Inverse folding.
């Protein structure tokens, strides 16, 4: 990993055990990756949200923000704090966050319900302003989705899931060029997974191919 602000992390929002790990059959008979197999919160997130297309500006801005806050932490931590994040950042409305001042930075840094990291807080504000600027070029959603790859991985184990790609590196570079921060290639690949731009559900998982973007494989 060559980014000082983006520690290496698994692409899926959990930590994989060291041994080769394929899909796990749950008590309900459904196959899921290990990170979504036991924790009820992660299981529900996996079953209902992760990997489903997000094509609206506010939804994408929220996910870019949360992926940045996740860097160096577990996704479970961010998911549990998501209601507090949404309250603290006014529902991740870009127009509102873009108007934040130093008083808001101080408020956020004093909010124990979120991840209190000055650089990440400021990045969220910077990125809100960048989102607004992108409207003149068609908007954040069209911009992000223009980097969708022509093919998606077909991992059978957690170890086969990539953590970055040529497309995520290109998206990272392009977003940086538009003034975004905390959008490294690994973070952007995690975003691409979360919003359905790639399908890294393990082959055999009951969720693979359900996004409508990619056929089951």
């Amino acid at each position: 990993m060559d980014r000082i602000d983006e520690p290496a992390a698994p692409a899926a929002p959990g930590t994989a055990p060291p041994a080769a790990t394929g899909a796990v059959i749950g008590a309900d008979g459904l196959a899921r990756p290990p990170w979504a197999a036991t924790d009820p919160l992660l299981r529900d997130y996996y079953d209902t949200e992760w990997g489903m297309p997000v094509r609206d500006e506010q939804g994408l801005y929220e996910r870019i923000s949360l992926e940045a806050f996740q860097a160096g932490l577990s996704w479970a931590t961010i998911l549990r704090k998501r209601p507090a994040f949404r309250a603290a950042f006014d529902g991740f409305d870009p127009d509102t966050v873009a108007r934040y001042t130093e008083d808001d930075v101080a408020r956020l840094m004093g909010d124990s319900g979120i991840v209190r990291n000055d650089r990440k807080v400021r990045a969220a504000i910077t990125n809100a302003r960048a989102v607004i600027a992108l409207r003149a070029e068609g908007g954040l959603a069209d911009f992000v989705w223009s980097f969708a790859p022509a093919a998606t991985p077909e991992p059978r184990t957690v170890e086969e899931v990539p953590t970055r790609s040529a497309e995520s590196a290109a998206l990272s570079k392009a977003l940086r060029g538009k003034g975004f921060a905390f959008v490294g290639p690994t973070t952007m690949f995690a975003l691409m997974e979360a919003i359905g731009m790639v399908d890294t559900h393990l082959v055999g998982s009951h969720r693979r191919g359900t996004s409508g973007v990619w056929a089951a494989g």
